[in-house]
């Protein structure tokens, strides 16, 4: 059914980005929302766009460390204070806090402590909230670990990518695989049982033996979960340039990529892992990944920091770094945004379900759900015929092959659902 694999959910987001825009004045809309009570699941996202070293494969919203990081925590704190007192913010607890980047742990222990203290003092954080921090092994100092433990951090996502030294050098990771193993073990021994790693596979020259080595370490360290990605060659990345110049070989093709995927999937599911998301395997009862649970249910995401994207009710916004402080005085949240209709929420939730590994037509009234199913039936039938989904009660569950092609399914399903609402709404 597919010959070219989409390796991220970006294509779905692009299609959804320009759909279902409500043309009402977004400034007036969010002013009204902030005076009401919240009624949906919610998370906080804090973006730290700095890295000590830029990975060879990365094109994310980040910059190499410079002096501007020294006052960056003050920006976050100022943004928290500007919005904290509104009824919409205070009326419902946040069930997840996620520090992303970049590498959030490039901040000093005092900066991290100041942000977390302000957040706990001013925002209604649930007592059992998941507070998660992305990091690399090299920035996790003893002082930072102590501060984060004291301030309630209970989940780490560590960008290991691979424990194989050759692969680490190629991907631009700092330190050896042995260094990574020692640091992760130290983090877990310190009480952070919900420690996760990112794993990249199908990078140039990778062998099955190297992949099995990574999986062996994952099992031995008792890691709570992994986010696993086939290497994406981003235009403009250092790795992409080296491959174009012939200095590094091309990554293996789709056949080898599928073999590597199958090895990861089968090895870890046989070792006590479950599928949480199409790119996420977790140990049972260890990692709920609450942040992505909220996002995939079209929940609120209160976003802080330059480059962060968020949503409050039906207002989607982006914290553009160049926004004047004067504009923030007009509105306590970034004015760079738009209002979306409820149809956006319906599609967003249904695509979120695919990310969780299943398809279901249950978001609206029975008549509309049936009409939507009939509109999508030929697509569902093709997925069934190609063995990418199987019937599971009143929903369709992605098979192993379906998970491999999951982002393709998301993209096509998004387009089909958008067309449905354009025709029948």
UniProtKB/TrEMBL annotation:
Domain Radical SAM core, chain residue ranges per copy: 36-274
GO CC annotations on file: cytoplasm
Among PROSITE patterns, the record links this protein to: RADICAL_SAM (PS51918)
Q: Does the keyword Iron apply?
A: yes
Biological process terms in GO annotation: porphyrin-containing compound biosynthetic process
Q: Does the keyword Metal-binding apply?
A: yes
Q: Which UniProt keywords apply?
A: Iron, Iron-sulfur, Metal-binding, S-adenosyl-L-methionine
InterPro entries noted in UniProt: Aldolase_TIM, Coproporphyrinogen-III_oxidase, Elp3/MiaA/NifB-like_rSAM, rSAM, rSAM_sf
Superkingdom of the organism of origin: Bacteria
Where do the coiled-coil regions begin and end? none
* Entry GO MF terms: 4 iron, 4 sulfur cluster binding; catalytic activity; metal ion binding
Put simply, this protein is called: Heme chaperone HemW
